[in-house]
Amino acid sequence: AEDGIRDDLVTGVQTCALPISGRPVIFAGTHFGVNRLFPVWLARQGIELLSLEGGDRMKKLAIPVPETLSTFELTSGFPAQATLAALRKLQAGGCINITAERMKGFDQQSSQRDWPGLSMQFLLGLPNLSLGSGASILPYFCTLQHRGRVRVEIKPPIRPPTEVARVGTPAREQQVERLVDEFDTVFRAEVERTPGNLRTIDRKPPG
Fold this sequence. Notes:
By secondary structure, the chain is α/β, with parallel strands linked by helices. It has helices at residues 17-20, 38-43, 57-60, 80-91, 125-133, 170-193, and strands at 25-29, 49-53, 69-73, 95-99, 101-102, 110-115, 118-123, 136-144, 150-154.
């Protein structure tokens, strides 16, 4: 394929049936492997996707993307305008893509998890969007294989609770942290499986 991702190297793709059925879905990536390719690959499967990104690198590199992919450039942290755009998309039964964790230099809208030698920061925009829309979170990983090929793996969904607590309450904070914990567990497991794909440059130590 033009994006270097071979269809026969894709696993877990059955979960992609969720957005086709009209259910809201949040595809959640990380600074891991070549996850930047995922939104383009997914859009080429015919799935309409709103991708929230720090910058539209494909546009800057003059790389053509499918009409099914729309990019919302984040100017700082997780601004309210991006949140509203994402919520509208999800509440209409659509799909969005977001990077769930950030390296050093993040704002206070994040939750820290300390790994051996590393401090991981998970953006609270991910769990809040899930709770605000009822959307399932689908973690994904694009890992490098032999000869420059890429393996795409979409993990089982992380689902929000059926009864969502009111914003600003201790119960809501607990629900947010639970979703972060679940994503952290999935991310850690993938890093342990394929540690060479983790980007460690610019990450800060715990503490």
